[in-house]
């Protein structure tokens, strides 16, 4: 088995979209970051956190027959469904029995988007520059005529081309990753490694509940009204600053039993079974938030939102309807 690093190279977030000379850009995918190793004895798919994903993706294991022995790929496992990248279908593959995983693979097959080649035959490529590893990866796809579910990640050194990828946010492209052409592969490193830029937009949602207390809210649970006027959950903010918590607290009132979320529980995150301790509030306060473009099929944001400011000048009816993503109000 090719030597697999305990953790792949990581990307440092950046708020600046820039592709200077000597750097390349690739699309940032909404999927599972993973390492894929294949040799005569074993095929292994492992997440960036070390979780063995192999049992959940039998279609990728079967497709490994098209690869030469001794290959170690870094990439993203994705599922394409209903015209977009569907992250929620990936999470359904975790901790499944073999028969269930096989059935799910038939319904919504996964693809592996390869963006780095770390080992080939008997050669460790991690010390070589990214440009050489990329050339070897392209040759791998060409020489072995790799097709679905193997996908070669697009790459460019042209900033205008990279900026065009940002317009693909509606189908699940979250932004771009920047890589220095002469950089070696640095397992587990973030600082001094790759850079990632996420597309973010400001939009509005309605405060439906808080963690913490009414007098000192910690985070806000946000919703939007559906066509029937029911408040539907869309996401949660990051921890509020003290100043924003004070501004929000004076505009909150405890909700009665008629609240749409009465009796509902909220998960603390998709990797945990922990449930949030929340207080429901009268859904009247509008919040302007900074959101990325990663949405699930139900129209919820997958990543935490950053509160920009409460919008007491807006009415809940002014907020985009449930399912409208990052579309801002006109006001």
UniProtKB/TrEMBL annotation:
Protein name as catalogued: ATP-dependent DNA ligase
Chemical reaction(s) catalysed: ATP + (deoxyribonucleotide)n-3'-hydroxyl + 5'-phospho-(deoxyribonucleotide)m = (deoxyribonucleotide)n+m + AMP + diphosphate
Pfam families named in the record: DNA_ligase_A_M
Keywords of the record: Ligase
ATP-dependent DNA ligase family profile domain residues: 112-198
GO terms, molecular function: ligase activity
Family, as annotated: Belongs to the ATP-dependent DNA ligase family.
Source organism phylogeny: Bacteria, Bacillati, Actinomycetota, Actinomycetes, Kitasatosporales
Domain of life, source organism: Bacteria
Keyword Ligase among UniProt keywords: yes
């Amino acid at each position: 088995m090719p030597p697999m690093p305990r953790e792949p190279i990581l990307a440092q977030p950046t708020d600046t979209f820039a592709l200077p000379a000597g750097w390349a850009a690739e699309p940032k995918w909404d999927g599972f970051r993973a390492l894929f190793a294949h040799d005569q004895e074993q095929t292994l798919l492992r997440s960036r956190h070390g979780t063995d994903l192999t049992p959940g993706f039998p279609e990728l294991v079967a497709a490994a027959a098209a690869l030469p022995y001794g290959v170690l790929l870094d990439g993203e496992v994705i599922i394409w469904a209903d015209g977009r990248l569907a992250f929620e279908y990936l999470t359904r593959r975790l901790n499944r029995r073999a028969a269930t995983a096989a059935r799910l693979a038939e319904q919504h097959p996964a693809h592996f988007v390869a963006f780095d080649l770390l080992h080939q035959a008997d050669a460790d490529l991690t010390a070589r520059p990214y440009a050489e590893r990329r050339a070897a990866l392209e040759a791998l796809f060409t020489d072995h005529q790799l097709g679905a579910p193997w996908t070669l990640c697009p790459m460019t050194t042209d900033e205008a081309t990279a900026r065009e990828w940002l317009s693909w946010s509606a189908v699940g492209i979250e932004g771009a990753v920047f890589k220095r052409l002469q950089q070696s592969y640095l397992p587990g490193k973030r600082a001094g490694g790759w850079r990632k830029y996420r597309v973010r937009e400001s939009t509005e949602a309605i405060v439906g509940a808080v963690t913490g207390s009414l007098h000192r809210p910690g985070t806000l649970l946000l919703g939007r009204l559906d066509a029937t006027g029911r408040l539907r959950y869309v996401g949660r903010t990051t921890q509020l600053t003290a100043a924003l918590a004070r501004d929000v607290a004076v505009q909150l009132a405890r909700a009665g039993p008629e609240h749409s979320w009465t009796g509902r529980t909220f998960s603390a995150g998709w990797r945990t079974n922990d449930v949030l301790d929340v207080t429901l509030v009268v859904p009247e306060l509008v919040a302007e938030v900074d959101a990325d473009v990663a949405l699930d099929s139900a129209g919820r944001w997958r990543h935490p939102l950053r509160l920009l400011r409460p919008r007491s000048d807006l009415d809940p009816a002014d907020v985009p309807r449930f399912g409208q993503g990052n579309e801002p109000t006109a006001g």
